[in-house]
Amino acid sequence: MDQMTTNILVAGVGGQGVILASDIMSEVFMEAGYDVKKSEVHGMAMRGGIVTSHFRFGKKVYSPLIKQGEVDILFAFEQLEGLRWFNYLRPTGKILMNDNKVNPPAVNLGEMEYPKDIPEVIRSKFKSFYLIKGTEIALQLGDARAANVVLLGAISKFFEVNDDLWLKTILNYLPPKVHELNRKAFSTGRDQISQS
Amino acid sequence: MKKIMSGNEAIARGAFEAGVKVAAAYPGTPSTEILETIAKEYKEIYAEWSPNEKVALEVTYGASMAGARAMACMKHVGVNVAADPFMTLSYVGVNGGLVLVTCDDPELYSSQNEQDNRHYARFAKVPMFEPSESQEAKDFIKLGYEVSEKFDTPVMVRSVTRISHAKGIVELQDPMTPPVPIEIKKDTAKYTMLPSFARVRHAFIEERFLRLKEFAEQFPGNRMEINDPTVGIISAGISYQYAKEVFPNYSYLKLGMVWPLPKNLIGEFFKKVKKVYIIEELDPFLEENIRAMGFKPKGGKDLFPICGELNPFLVEKGILGKKFKPPKPFFKEPLPPRPPNLCPGCPHRGVFHVLRKLKVFTSGDIGCYTLGAYPPLNVINSNICMGSSIGGAHGMAKALGEKGRGKIVGVIGDSTFLHAGVHPLMDVGYNKSYATIIILDNRTTGMTGHQEHPATGYTIRGEKTHRIDFVGLGRALGIENPRKLNPWNLEETERVIKEELDKDEPSLIISEGPCVLLRRAFKKYNKPLQVDSTKCIGCKTCVNLGCPAISYQLVEGEMAMTADGKKRKGIAFIESSLCPGCHLCYQVCKFEAIKSQEEKPIFGFETA
């Protein structure tokens, strides 16, 4: 295994902005001079299904898919989806999770329970665990849709890439009228990690 | 200049740089974004959504005869639809270069099967290139045009989901001017496949095939990477990248052209390395052909699965065998699955609720509505391919006779109907079926993400155009009295479907409800519905509509009773941020526990 490559698995539910987040990360790391590859599945996932995006950067990247057990950062936009991909983590990996729950159909129908105490389960087995109130922070700032930018702010703290490059790339994807909101979302997200 | 591109974007870019003039496709995952990118980014190219893949390929055949470089793009099963023109297109060859892009879907992320379309290249005796990342996807499209024109052959380029929907860095180049002039050029013996002319062309393609074999030996995209000679891996496409990832130090024969295969090069590789493994996704296509040449690899499909897609984990496991140590899981409990779902407010839900209530057999088709097979709707009973709902329903009706009267329904989407449903509906009319056919007209191609089709009134670039009228078309096909219904009005939906089921003649219903995500079709959405928690008895009738906005929540203590003293274990809850206000739940609730926030309840939406 090439330790020069960093593997990030972004996981969530259709509509949460998982793919946009990994698109933004790809551009940031390409601009920062790395080889990048990413892979996801579009199509049926749009209808409330599971969405994952494998994102990798390094000197030279071959596979667009991360090998099970080699995820460096599990970047989960929803609790259950974080738990679902838990086993893909490297023992030395980190988890950055949005404190948000979206019920799957079996839970809505009352046939299964939403797993209890997911943050506690993860924390009991993993030291590097960051639970971010992304959706709540975005709501306070005025729009729940900015949650993914809060989360990008948080993850950006793990890398030595200039935060201006992050912000510039993020704002490029967004209409000017929401730039101010997303600037705040990004910096509030970054603050979450220093406080953890 | 460098840019991050998906495989599909890179294919579109390749077409642009190669000077393609005509591109045609029918949407299908994972191929859809190729034509979408062309329509959006490369105005120089004429782009169209064709009604189906057969038409798309025929359009490119015409463009090629006129000297233009042309490209048809489709998902793997689309090639089945286009197979009729394709097999004989191989005979006639090309004038301007012609590339058929097939996007296969190993693991069936959004498909009805996981067929391996490499077999088509062998079947049709045409060359096939298989890129392993975005850069090669662009390069191989351009190369495809050179090879097509040089050898007088259509060329296939095969992608898979993990190429089409993966992104990597691509170096951009300027577009070129293709060498063939665009003009009317008659060459009847080449382009008209009468038996006497086709016999000549068959001999030609056999001779062409020998020349292509020689080309494969020299083609730089088939390359040896000799490192550690104890293990040699023969691979192509995405599988090559997985293998390089886990075994960067082994030796490789990386094939960019997967048909025909370079026999001498393969022989040379077998001499240079000690043992050879063949790593490929889906069928043992390379393996069987390489074994047939007399070579003896150490391993292939005995080590790697035929079903599903490969990944670095499976490749490592296959090669290491017993020495492979999988990572220890941190967590082993089963988790609730999260299957895809019909959206809140989806127009299909009302029709499905009624069909479930009427207990009919529902012959289904390809689209979002196939999801109606899942609980709690459980209403779709069959589905094989585009258009099969109607022929299937008709065939069942003829077999069942009186036993099936009033019990057989076919449901098909608007785009799917125009793709492959017109002929079977003609059969229903012509051969006097009693099956009831429902077109679920949501005014778009839904599952693939809102593409235009001949009944939306718009082209791929958003220009206004003729819009097919399903009632008029139904009449022309022999359905005397096609009916319409509003699928968000359950009383009307049930009444119309029942009346049509009772009829002893071919019947066609058009369910008119635009896809709830198709913003332009709605003047406005409604206010979200609310559950009155003093009245809800927790009967789950609304929950069983399978709407993602409605959930069932257990209650305890004081909450375990309604205001008028009825016991309950749980109550329904509507997540207002998800609810567009379709009012289906309002209509099914017998306890007046669901409240409309509108002045007067609206069954459906004000559509534009």
CATH class of chain A: Alpha Beta
Order of the strands making up the biggest sheet of chain B: 3-2-4-5-7-6-12
- CATH fold-level assignment of the largest domain in chain B: Rossmann fold
**Could you tell me the mean pLDDT of chain B?**
97
The helix fraction of chain B, in percent, is: 25-40%
What count of helical segments of chain B does DSSP give? 19
Based on the structure given, which CATH architecture of chain A is correct?
3-Layer(aba) Sandwich
Structural topology:
The complex is a heterodimer of chains A (196) and B (608).
Chain A (H helix, E strand, L loop, with lengths): L5 E8 L4 H14 L3 E6 L9 E9 L12 E6 L2 H6 L4 E10 L6 H4 L9 H8 L3 E4 L1 H8 L5 H10 L6 H10 L6 H17 L1
Parallel strand pairs in A: 1-4, 4-5, 5-6
Antiparallel strand pairs in A: 1-3, 2-3
Helix pairs in contact in A: 1-7, 5-6, 5-8, 6-8
Chain B lengths: L1 E5 H11 L4 E4 L7 H9 L4 E4 L3 H13 L4 E6 H17 L5 E7 L13 H7 L3 E2 L4 H18 L3 E6 H4 L1 E6 L16 H4 L3 H24 L4 E3 L2 E9 H10 L3 E6 L1 E3 L3 H10 L2 E5 L5 H8 L19 H9 L27 H11 L2 E3 L24 H13 L7 E6 H17 L5 E6 L28 H7 L6 E3 L4 H13 L4 E6 L9 E3 L5 E2 L18 E5 L15 E5 L9 H5 L5 E2 L10 E2 L1
Parallel strand pairs in B: 2-3, 2-4, 4-5, 5-7, 6-7, 10-11, 10-13, 14-15, 15-16, 16-18, 17-18
Antiparallel strand pairs in B: 1-8, 6-12, 9-11, 19-24, 20-23, 21-22
Helix pairs in contact in B: 1-2, 1-6, 3-4, 10-13, 14-18, 15-16
